[in-house]
Amino acid sequence: MKKIVSLILSLVMLMSITSGLNLTAYAETYGDFEYSYIENDFLSITGYKGSETNLEIPSAINGDSVRVIDREAFEGCQSIKTVTIPDSIISIGMYAFCNCTSLTSVTIGNSVRSIADSAFRGCTSLKNINIPDSVESIDNLAFSGCTNLTSITIPNSVTSIGNGVFFDCENLVSIEVANDNMNYTSISGILFSKNKTELIQYPAAKTDSTYIIPDGVTRIDYAFGSCKNLTSVTIPDSVTSIGDNAFNGCTSLTNITIPNSVTSIGYSAFSDCSGLANIAISDSVTSIGVSAFSGCISLKSIAVSDNNKNYSSVDGVLFNKEKSKLITYPIGKTNDTYEIPNSVTCICYAAFAFCQNLTNITIPNSVTVISNDVFALCSSLTDVIIPNSVTSIGSYAFTGCVSLKSVTIHDSVTSISDGAFFDCEGLKDVYYTSTEDEWNKITIGNDNENLTNATIHYNFEPKPSNKQTGSCGDNVTYSLDTETGVLTISGTGKMKDYSGEDSPFYQNSNIKSVIIENGVTSIGNLAFSSCNSLIEVSLPSSIISLGVSAFSGCENLMSISIPANVADIQSIAFAGCKKLTSIEVDSNNENYSSINGVLFDKNITELVCYPAGKNDASYTVPNTVKSFAYGSFYDCENLTNVIIPNGVTSIGGASFWNCKNLKSIVIPKSVTKIDLFSFNGCESLKDIYYTGTQDEWKNITIGDGNINLTSATIHYNFEPCTENQHNYYGEWKIIEEPTCTKVGLKQRTCSFDGYVQKEEIPAKGHTEVVINGYAATCEKSGLTDGKKCFVCGEVLEAQKEIAKLDHSYTKTVVEPTCTEQGYTIYKCETCGETKKADFVNAKGHDFSNNAQFCLNGCGTANPNYVAPDPSTAQTGSCGDNVIYSLNTETGVLTISGTGDMADYSLDNDSPFRQNSSIIKSVIIENGVTSIGNYSFSGCANLINITIPNSVTSIGSYAFSDCTSLTSVTIGNSVTSIGSSAFYNTAYYNDKSNWDNGVLYLSNCLIDTNNDFDSTTDYTIKDGTRIIANHVFSNYTKLKSIIIPDSVTTIGDYAFYECTNLTNATIGNGVTSIGERAFNECTNLASITIPDSVISIGDWAFSECTNLTNAIIGNGVTSIGYGTFEDCTNLTDVTIPDSVISIGERAFYNCKSLKSVTIGNNVTNIGSSAFYGCNNLTNITIPDSVTNIGDEAFSWCTSLASVTIGNSVTSIGNGTFKDCEKLESVIIPDSVTNIGDEAFYECTKLTNAIIGNSVTSIGSAAFYECIRLTGVIIPNNVTNIGENAFCSCSGLTSIIIPDSVTNIGDSAFSDCSGLTSVTIGNSVTSIGKNVFKWCAKLESVTIPNSVTSIGEEAFSVCSSLTSVTIPNTVTSIGDSAFDNCSKLNEVNYSGTVAQWKSITIGSNNSYLTNANIKCSNGDIVNAVIIDKIKYELNDDNTAQVTGYIGTPYSLTIPESISYEGDTFKVTSIGEDAFAHCTSLSNITIPNSVTRIENYAFYGCKNLSDIYYIGTQEEWNKIYIDSTGNGCLPSATIHFSSIPIPEPTPTPTPTPTPTPTPEPTPTPNPAPQPSTQPTQETQQQVAQQTAQQQSVKNDTAAKQVNVAKPKSVSPKKVKSAKKAVSVEWKKVRGVKGYQIQVATDKKFKKNKKTVTIKKQKTTKTTVKKLKAKKKYYVRVRTYKIVNGKKVYSAWSKVKSVKTK
Questions:
Q1: If pLDDT is split at 50, 70 and 90, which confidence band does 816 have?
Q2: How far apart are the C-alpha atoms of 297 and 273, rounded to whole Å?
Q3: How far apart are CA 27 and CA 18, in angstroms?
Q4: Distance of alpha carbon 1118 from its chain centroid, rounded?
Q5: Is the per-residue pLDDT at 7 higher than 60?
């Protein structure tokens, strides 16, 4: 049967990989199914034509078994919702159910062994699928695009998983792997290969934003596809390959670093990573796949290491190393033009695809190939010239270039592939350089109608390009515009060195300006030599060196500036620059300086270059100079006289070369050397003034080429005039006499150099006398004191009139009432005079419009009130407590009640809009507090309105389109006016009401119009009280605004997006600043919020990115949500004591914020209040604060110190997350809760003192605080959250107090330095992974309160030697003590029976193999003799169950003695030597008849087995092949030595003493450390020769016993606390054995039933647990020589009991 199955699978695989054919050559139909025969009577389903929703695939057709679902059989069947695949099917073919988008559920039969490529691809409704244990392979993309799939489990049978199996499963949260799977594993739901070298799939729907790939992973293919939540992934140095689609569709990914270990980047590896802005390619990368960065719309730069041997980059563009291939132009680059370097011969596939910013691109003549999709979807590209070097244009090269208007094609082009110009709908003109006949010879592919339908201009002669481009360095290129003369140098690194004419710029008269872009680091030798038209040069900050003669001979260059980073200027860099008048140096340059345009070294000890174009005839060298650089005065033809100071020791070569007008020079006696040609060409030099003697002159070393020097007249012992001292002055002469006010002038002349010295004669000054004044009064003006000169009479200080003081009145206004006059009381503060004035008549009662009560609010009833006729009145509600009444005859609308009117919109008309033509008058009675949005919009006949004093706000568009409204009275109670509240009213439309584009109404600024657009500075009128909402928003030219003291309210969005506003003065009367009032005022540099302000609205100053200073007044009580969010230049802020609350995100992402002072009355700091303030170094939280919100200080990466006040009760989630420089923290006793991730990854935190009131430590609260060395958990803590101290590798000991009842999963995982732990007596369970990877933990005591130990709780505690477990523990999870290789002692407080009742999960062999001691001294199920652990049976047989320690060479004895009894060793039990990787050889006696499953699992170094018996005897041993794969690969050494029966040891002992003698003894077992030698065997053979004939007779009777036939369960049914099993009768066997257990390894709750009759074919296993899943297997046995010989176990089935 197995051979037939293998044959079918082989055929299916062959068909799937050859010629794309499926198995439908001879298709027949069965209902809606199509099928064909594969082999003999086996069928394949090849198609389906039905429309069933719940589909069951037949297991047989016409009696023949259906074995295969063929390629594409059900592809695209939209009707199918569920499908059941029968057990007969062994293979699901390629694309079998691809794009079955309605498919929600699939049941796969238990015989399916392979799921082929794309089998369920694109099944977007598929939510769950159960992969049975039979499946061995899942091929490429099998479940890709199953967007509703949330979780999946890989069974232990799977040995092969292809690429991208779960790619683009965007809702997949977890991938689990069966524990027994030998090839794959899962960590936190992430799929890995078993050895964790390949990360196969990270579930796309995991919510984590960051992920660190474990060290050891070497390859990632498809792994992170569509993981849209990930913003950052850390790749370890172990990774060598980033495979195909590895990060495809990670749209949130903003940061990734490719380590130096990576050698290859696969196809579409980072495709559609739309948030990725830049990427760096390390020098190790040798291969980058096609479209690796396609769709990365934010990508601006691809940087390549200079040491990379295969790739390079220029200005962020990716090339091959030689720059002959342009591979990728980043989509996110903002340039609208680009010139391809002329080194490029090939533009690679899709190199410019989606580059929508490019409008023009220049293709050089070097390009020969334009590949497929090169410029696809470059939607802004307008014109293209294909150079005459190109012979072919690839498929879809320009597809989607919708703006392309014209294209020039040379006659070199012979083919244009399919779709090259597809969807170029704007293409109108094609310019072809040859004839129509030649055009018709071009092979033009399909989908090029836009090209062929355009107007084709034949025999076109293109204008020669005005662009010259090329390379001038390894990573440096140039572009010369010959029309403008602008030469642009761009790229990175050094320019080439040239020798003269080989420079591409040599004597190029077109070059007028040179622009060197940032990135270029050096200018090569002679780079711009003899560019005689060059006028200006721009050097970037990246330049660090200028080569020899870099600009020599640039005769028209007039000035140059040396940037800060230049460290090396080679000789004669500016030689022959005859118009160069100045060389300026950046003040921050550490190597050079400039004085009056002359270039020196930084310390002015060397004169580097004197510009040849300076006009001065005479020059005195500064006295700090000690030497001249080579050619320092080269070609300085204007100089006639130079004075060199004492201290100069050498005059460099060619220093004064060709200074043809130099007549005299002063040389000091300090000069010892004059180099070659220093004065060559100085033909006018006549006089040398030497300060030393003639003999001293003779000692100077003068080089060749200085004949003009040596032939001049030398004047010895000269005392030179210096810049500060002249020795030959004449007498002073007065030029101008001084007066009282004017200085005089005198001068004298130096007879040596003609220097004229001038000095001022000080003015004589006035002789002052005082003119007395007198004071002013309230009635009379006064005069100040004055001054005059006694000598000349000039008035020095005029007397000024002091205005009479007048009366300084304070005003008290008494308002008129209905019956009393109003008036104003004036009181003079100077003289105390009091008077009444400004009388106002009593208002009288206002009963207008038949008001029931006086409208002035005095409460007087209208005596003439007439109740309205109900037939003419309309009434209703217009607010929760506000009603209206409209008299349809008079048109009077009365609003009455208390509180706010409702808000309306154009889509939700107010109740007045339908009667808007009737309403003539509106009466709003006192009590109404607000007028809602659009309340009276469109009341076209409304003429005037008075807003009562109870109203505080008027909504947006409240009176808009009231086209007759001319008069509005707004009371002082109104504090807020919405945008466009009075738009299109008669008042609004009256141009006379507008003031330069600004509209005021009743002391309120209510609107602006287009006339204000160009206003740059504006002062709001004094007396204005309110600035309405949105009034100045989006006025981008407004630079300055002055708000007077009269203003109390700045409305919402008042100055929103005034992006050029640099100055805003807020008056001292403002009490409220509205929401987003100054949002996105990106040029506002500072703001002062006066003390009058009480509230600041949400986002009031957010995104003011240039705001550096904000002064918050002492009246502010709260800082709103996001008030200063993204003020990225704000450096410091003081929050005054008046503030009570700091809102959420108040200072979010204020990256430059260095200092914050929090006022002493703040009680709450909102969530994310200071998030991302990564320059903030310390913070003090005052005692007034009670709550710190989530992530309040998260990502404050420079925060080193924090003081938490004594009133804080809660530290929110992530409060100090990623504060990577925080070193210590004291959590006060007031705190009761530490939130999740509160100190997450505070990697420098060394000390944390937790207050005594804390009751809960949140999940990951101190995660990866790797330097945290000690922490005391206080006695009030009851809960320690998941991962609370995970990866705190500095922790060495921890005490969990008795108060703690819960320890979350992984709470102390990976605390690799932890050596000691004390667990309190209240803990009831130890969760999953709690102490996993605590590699230094040596012992642990589990308290009596614990009932369960979770999965992997102590896994990989590799130093753990002992553990104490109480009898309260009832379960120990899978792998709880896995990889605890040193665990040899377990102290158990219960009995053996209690231990056996514990449910112990799989992978706990180190625990179960340890010496388990019960409290009464009993050993659990075992004795340990010579470190071998045995289980003793009632029939005096023993089974080897484990080994204590690390075995290398091991001998199992034939028997052991224990407590006076002898036990024969007959079997080696399950997991006995599992994971003994050090075991290299073992000796097994012939008493052993069984070796159970997994006995030698993982013994990968076992090379030799010494069997004390014959090969025939070995063959009789029953060896369970499961988990014992290492046995067949070992060498088995057989021995014919008979082993005598042992003699029982007289006294009980756990360690029988073996004898080393080679002769048979009562204790014949070999020494544990020895192997049977050939010599020993020969000696024993000689001594037992007399037994040989007996042995031969026995051997003659021995035959190889074949195992009996196996059997499979026919039916397995559920019963109440029982399982019913039925099987087929098997001939030639004695009976059957049935096993049930609750785990697949048959370790947990195992029961075995033996059936002794061959005819019996069913049984019921009883006394099982109710509602529990059980696994069932069956085998047969027969009796041979009195012993049972068993078949292999059947396949496992499962059933759940009732």
A1: confident
A2: 8
A3: 19
A4: 33
A5: no
